[in-house]
Automatic annotation (TrEMBL):
Top-level division of the source organism's lineage: Bacteria
Species the sequence originates in: Agaribacter flavus
Ranges for domain Peptidase M14: 29-309
PROSITE patterns the record matches: PEPTIDASE_M14
Alphabetical list of SUPFAM superfamilies matching this protein: Zn-dependent exopeptidases (SSF53187)
Family recorded in the similarity comment: Belongs to the peptidase M14 family.
Protein name as annotated: M14 family metallocarboxypeptidase
Amino acid sequence: MSNTHYPIGQAGIAWQSAERKAWLAQQKIKRSYFEEVMCRFDDVPPQFKKINYGNLPYDKEFAQPHAYPLFAFVPQSIDGNKPSVLISGGVHGYETSGVQGACEFLIHHASQFLDAFNVVVAPCISPWAYETINRWNPMALDPNRSFYANSPVPECSQLMDFLNGLGLSFLAHIDLHETTDTDDSEFRPALAARDGITLSNWGIPDGFYLVADSRQAQPDFQAAIIDAVSSVTHIAPADEKGQLIGSDAHQHGVICYDKKGLNLCGGITDASFVTTTEVYPDSLNATPEICIAAQVAALDGALNYLMKV
């Protein structure tokens, strides 16, 4: 695959400002962060406090329809003697069940874990990408490769500043994602075009899987999540090479990435227990409701496991 398959740019030549502007001009608002996500915040139980930790002023910088306030939820009373757990969704805004799963968990499940943990939830880190059903932000930058010091990506820098301000040491971080058919049909071709490189198709796994941190895979933790999710949806089998999306399966339904080395959201803390969920919404055996339920089951499975360690 190369950028000859993509309508912007020339094969083998990385995008410059003109190509990035042409890409942005093609992006359209397709759904509402305010009506589909922020409206759900009214249903969050009173044990949590809503914090407006930042704002994406894309209306001014990129002539988008409006600015995007960023929100996170923390316990009304943070107890420094409790371990803390971070849950993040919508780093890639197009991955719908990550956002809605975080909201569903926050509204209906999170309170039951507050006796054991300080539960911190950032439901939608990339709201412009949620509205435009995108992997990138308006600068054609991928937030989930941009969590590093002095990041030019405001979705990342504002979240990191917020978390640093909390002063918490996190035991765990669960980052909610999807792998969709559009990863191969749109987003990887766009990446190849943007960077002037050639990429091979992954082949999208049919089912749920996890991405552990290669520095500390925590196989029992991952297995507990896989077990919890398997009651809701099917777990992706490895391919004939024993791989998922081009990476070796370390255990059933689990691959590993270097979270910090790749500047992923999963590497923003020093948590001992880290995983990224990957739901497959395009499966013939999946529905939007099943995908959201799988994200919630993953969170329940993760926190129930941590309560026993």
